[in-house]
What we know:
Elements: H1 8-18, H2 21-41, H3 46-62, H4 73-91, H5 118-132, H6 137-148, H7 153-160, H8 164-183, H9 187-201
Amino acid sequence: xxxxxxxxxxxxxxxxxxxxxxxxxxxxxxxxxxxxxxxxxxxxxxxxxxxxxxxxxxxxxxxxxxxxxxxxxxxxxxxxxxxxxxxxxxxxxxxxxxxxxxxxxxxxxxxxxxxxxxxxxxxxxxxxxxxxxxxxxxxxxxxxxxxxxxxxxxxxxxxxxxxxxxxxxxxxxxxxxxxxxxxxxxxxxxxxxxxxxxxxxxxx
Length: 204
């Protein structure tokens, strides 16, 4: 099996065991884009996101020998990245408060051109955006981590610093509210809107 074919867990285990630089690089390649998108959704600037990713991986590389107890690296990296961004907000003289990003989590909605025509896409995207703004920032963050990044409930719980059951409830309430609001749309728009929600956030 080549390094590139290994899962992130396999590459992490290999890096921790022997300090293999190629495996470390592959962990970075497998998760960096998701971290960057996550940071932007939290409301941080692009440069801060890039700097935070770099800081997190430098610290991981230098601290390898003390991280052998970390088996599932994905939630650990996401949580470290988020904490680093919070550190940036503490020293940003233009930041209103340390937790100001909590009220600004944005779940970006994209519509594939081959699903619906552009005019319909714009209309439905606006409706989905409006629906997403009616759930709490924590719910939007959980939805993002679950349906965009593809993390499991346990991993989401670790990132949000809550227990697994609370993560499940947070997601359930978010999706339940989205379904109910989508169902309240005009009958002629309801089916299309629910279908788009299903495509965009894999809602079943």
